[in-house]
Structures are given as C-alpha cells and as structure tokens.
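Lab notebook, bench 4. We co-purified these components, and the gel suggests they stay together. Before we commit to crystallization screens, I want a quick structural picture of the whole thing.
Request: model the full complex, all chains together.
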Amino acid sequence: MSTTPVKVAVTGAAGQIGYSLLFRIASGALLGPDTPVELRLLEITPALKALEGVVMELDDCAFPTLAGVEIGDDPNAIFNGTNLAMLVGAMPRKEGMDRADLLAANGKIFTGQGKALNDHAADDIKVLVTGNPANTNALIAMSNAPDIPRERFNALTRLDHNRAKTQLAKKLGVSVTEITNLAIWGNHDDSMYPDLYNTKVGGKVAADLVEQTWITEEYIPTVAKRGGAIIAARGLSSAASAANATIDHMRDWVKGTDDWVSMSVPSDGSYGVTEGIVSSFPCVVKDGQYEIVQGIELNDFSRERIAASVARLESERDQVKELGLI
Ligand SMILES: NC(=O)c1ccc[n+]([C@@H]2O[C@H](COP(=O)([O-])OP(=O)(O)OC[C@H]3O[C@@H](n4cnc5c(N)ncnc54)[C@H](O)[C@@H]3O)[C@@H](O)[C@H]2O)c1
Ligand SMILES: O=C(O)C[C@H](O)C(=O)O
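Here is the predicted assembly.
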C-alpha cells in the first residue's frame, strides 16, 4: 500500500447519498485496495452531530484503506489540500418539482465552495458535482474558482448513463456487459438525450435492434424521468444508485476507461454545444484526463434532442447570471 493518503472531500456527508458513498470510498471501491484515503467531510452546523454518528460507524468498519477522517462546517478547512471533491450537499427536489426549481436555493452553496476550492484545494484537484441541478451548480463552482483549470469541474450524468444501459439491456434480454458506446447528451434533467444510434450491442447498432417508437415513446422518457419515478415510489430521491454513479464517475476519471462513459464537462464547443456550459458528452479518460469523443455521426433526430437540452442549460446559465452567482 502507498503511504500518502488521497484526500477525498464529500459535502452533504450526513445526507442520504453520503450514507452510501462514504463507506464505499473508505472500503477502497473508489481508488482500490492499495490506496489509503483520508475523508474530509463537510456539513452544515446543525448536521454535524449526525455526522459524528456516521464517523463512529466508519470507525466500526475498521477499513484498512481509511487513513483518517476530518469533519467540519468550514469549507476552507475541509477543502485544504483536497485532491478529489464530491459536491453532494444540496437540497433534493420533492415530488412535483423540476430540478431547475432548486437553482435559487442550491446555487449559492456552490459560489462559496468554488471559492474555497480555488483557495485551498491541492493542485491536482478534481471536482465532481452531484447536488442538483448538477450541471449548472458545476458551472457556478467553476466560475467561482478562476485559478483551477475549467476541465477539473464535472457534473454527474453517470447515473443516467447507468439507467440507460440497464433499460436497453432489459429490452433486448442481454447483459449490460454487451452494451458499449452508450452516451447521455445534455442536461441532467428530463431533456437529457440517450443516443442509441451510436450505441452498440454485441457489435450491432442498438437503434437497429428496437422499434423507433419504443425509443421515442418508452426508452427516452423512462431514462429521463427515472429520478422522478424513484421519488414517487420511495418518497425520497435516489441515494444508493446516485452514490454508486458518483463513485463510477470519479473512479473512471482517476483510473481511466475502456469504453465511452457519460460525463458532464465544460463544453469546448464540440458538436455545436455552447462553449462554457457544463453538458453531458461521451468521454474517454486516459492518465487522469478526459476527452470528449470526437467524430461521432449524429442524425437529425439526435441533433434536435441535443439542441433542446442545450437550450435548457443556457436558460439555467442565464438564471444564475441574473442571480449574480456567476
Ligand atoms: N446528479 C444526480 O444524478 C443526482 C442523483 C441523486 C441526487 N442528486 C442530488 O444530490 C443532492 C443530495 O441528495 P441527498 O438525497 O443526499 O439529500 P439529503 O437532503 O439527504 O442530504 C443533503 C445533505 O447536504 C447537506 N447540506 C446542505 N447544504 C450544505 C452545504 N452548504 N454544505 C455542506 N452540506 C450541505 C444537508 O445538511 C444534508 O445533510 C440533492 O440535490 C439531490 O437532488 C443528484
Ligand atoms: O431526480 C432527482 O431529483 C434526483 C436525481 O437527480 C435523480 O436523477 O435520481
């Protein structure tokens, strides 16, 4: 085992997602069995007592890879020297709300945390935003951290990617391992677009294996509205699957990929997506750096869907500009 622990910050650590996420990071599911981690956990002051209880439980697991835990309510202290930051802490939506309805309440969290990361994080910091609306919260954090390279700010659409994979596998009666080149484009809201025209199943194009009406009337709405379906069923938003996707995204960003993955990243203008907004693309990762996959052919249907989702992201960007958050 190497000796220097990787400092992993998690915000909203006493929340639902935190309760699934922390134990998996501590057990080695993020960085492997040979890399010690130090958890740095941020909460609001009233939640610190509950967080102390979670830390007792972490102690009681005796994880060999857990080198230490620090908790607190000051982002400047918690982010000090942090290598990986998972920004989860934010209010979840309730039934009947859209994720964008959370912008006014949650957006301001990411101004202060962006500044604190800018001033105190380690030089190799990678920041992944899970708290909703995740794409625009990542834009806010990025805009408030001018000294950190923009590409170090990502948002989570891996949960949508994982959902899209399972729904397709179920439809075709195949294992998820047979599905490659899948990607979610756009925003983590109900305009997100899972593209089956470039997805492969056992080497064949997925869209050729299903009916077009299934894609438009069942598949895309099921994937895009899955978060709402879980809230309706559980009375609470997704937590274990969100923690799993947060681990999947950060692990692949650090360790690399052997297939396309969906990552929301600051757009460089690829595929006509407005530069600067944080949008989901098919990405590959090598040596800790992601690249947006280039040269993908998009049909007219895909282009229209992506443009509609980008319009949502532009509207969210304009709202947070008006609120003075970026
Ligand atoms: N991107 C995705 O795929 C995805 C999936 C699921 C949930 N989410 C989002 O993740 C967020 C968290 O969900 P949850 O179910 O864990 O919610 P939760 O309410 O159970 O926990 C949120 C925690 O964040 C804390 N918090 C609030 N403000 C904070 C701040 N300024 N600093 C640090 N901590 C703060 C709260 O005290 C709370 O403990 C929500 O916004 C939810 O919508 C995103
Ligand atoms: O739907 C939500 O509000 C939670 C989360 O974004 C999800 O997709 O499950």
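The mean pLDDT is 97. Worth comparing against the SEC data before the next meeting. Residues 11-12, 14-18, 42-44, 47, 88-93, 109, 130-132, 134, 156, 159, 188, 237-239, 242 surround nicotinamide-adenine-dinucleotide (ligand 1) (CB under 6 Å).
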